[in-house]
Amino acid sequence: MTTSRCLLLTGAAGFIGFHLAQALLATGWRVVGVDSLNDYYDVRLKEARRDLLLRSPGFRFVHGKVEEPGLLLGLMAEEHPDTVVHLAAQAGVRYSLENPRAYLEANLIGAYELLEAARAIPPRHLLMASTSSVYGANTSMPYAETDKCDTQLSFYAATKKANEAMAHSYAHLYGLPVTMFRFFTVYGPWGRPDMALFKFTRNILKGDPIDVYNGGDMRRDFTYVADLVEGIRRLIDTIPVRPVTPADIAPGDSLSPVAPWRVVNIGDGVPVQLLDFIRAIEQATGRSAVMNMMPMQAGDVPATWADGTLLNRLTGYHPRTGVTEGVARFVDWYRGYYGA
User: Fold this and answer.
1) At what angle do helices 15-25 and 225-236 cross, to 10 degrees?
2) Is residue 186 classed as helix, strand or coil in its secondary structure?
3) Can you give the pLDDT at residue 191?
4) What topology is assigned to 6-183+224-267+306-320 in CATH?
5) What is the 3-state secondary structure (H, E, C) of 269-304?
6) Which of 34, 174, 158 lies closest to 107 in space, CA to CA?
7) What residue ranges do the domains of the chain occupy?
8) Whole-number pLDDT of residue 96
9) Which residue, 51, 110, 189, 336, has most beta carbons within 10 Å?
10) Which domain of life is it from (predicted)?
11) Helix axes 274-285 and 196-206, enclosed angle (nearest 10)
């Protein structure tokens, strides 16, 4: 089935943005992608993603920072997109300890510019990326969207929690339908070089040691990127509506009682031990890892685990790619791309 709908996508040359753009272009969407192509990690990888997207006649690329005053407003006025998906952000928990201003500018000011543009020229649906890091010091798992989230452990997580609150205020004040999604350790082909899978694969193939934090006593809800993209695609047409009364909100639904605003976890729902993840990489590469055991890093958490009930109830979807399969696909891509 094809469509001629228009999507404004920020962070289009990023890992997740690239995969989402590819998926929507393949079904006939027109995608206007914005990206700053900054040097947080290898710009050549971002440029390669962008160049692949530019092969589609339905893709338009705009080089710019989302925090640039008026950039997004101008694009909204020019394109009048049906849907906006906001993925642009300064990512990474650890880097936020070194350069918090980058998070202030991209994550807070960038979100403000987006919300102002959407207020002026409302899309049918605004979807914005948050993160499982907002659950912070919560220890009750699996994490549910209705859990209280007031104990963020990094400035990165704090900016994402602020984005949720900012978007809620605009949804309440201006009737802007907003869905926030909380991601859980996304991995797969074309992934970010600062993520564990990329670093582990690179070092294992070279025979170099890998740094394993908290002595390997870490659990993550690893989510394969194609599963994440399918969740986002299904949420595009799952538009929140302001409830008439609190009784209209189903148990377990994060729908706001005062705004057309909802937050949804997109995670695999299965916590995987870090050492088991490393074994999957060893299996896919045919090499053994040399592990350098390290203490827990500041701002990090020992475990994440998504409750995927709400996503499944809203869309009928649940992520389905296991770690062994997903890691093997990444390693195949890595070897092909880098000739390793």
Assistant:
1) 60
2) strand
3) 97
4) Rossmann fold (3.40.50)
5) CCCEEHHHHHHHHHHHHCCCCCEEEECCCCCCCCEC
6) 158
7) 6-183+224-267+306-320
8) 86
9) 110
10) Bacteria
11) 50
How far is 226 from 260, CA to CA, in rounded Å?
27
Q: Give dist(CA 33, CA 54) in Å, integer.
A: 10
Burial degree of 204 (CB within 10 A; 0-12, 13-18, 19+): buried
Amino acid at 208: D
The predicted structure's pLDDT at residue 301: 78
pLDDT the model gives residue 2: 46
In the chain, which residues have pLDDT < 50?
A: 1-2
Contact 46, 13 (CB under 8 A): yes
- The string of DSSP letters for 13-60 reads TSHHHHHHHHHHHTTT-EEEEEE---TTS-HHHHHHHHHHHTTSTTEE
Helix (H, G, I), strand (E, B) or coil at 10: strand
User: Which pLDDT value is given to residue 1?
Assistant: 42
Q: Please give the structure tokens belonging to residue 5.
A: 């709908």
Asked if residues 240 and 261 have their Cβ atoms less than 8 Å apart, the reply is yes
Contact indicator for 176, 119 with CB cutoff of 8 Å: yes
With residue 212 as reference, give the H or E element that holds it.
strand 210-213
Please say whether the beta carbons of 10 and 88 come within 8 A: yes
Instruction: Kindly list the catalytic residues.
Output: 156
Q: Cβ distance 224 to 188 under 8 Å?
A: yes
d(CA 63, CA 54): 13
Structure tokens at 183: 């991601």
Closest CA to 329 of 266, 283, 265: 283
Cis (ω within 30 of 0) for the bond into 142? yes
Contact 177, 124 (CB under 8 A): yes
Cα angle at 295 between 290 and 297, to 5 degrees?
A: 110
For residue 111, give the amino acid letter: A
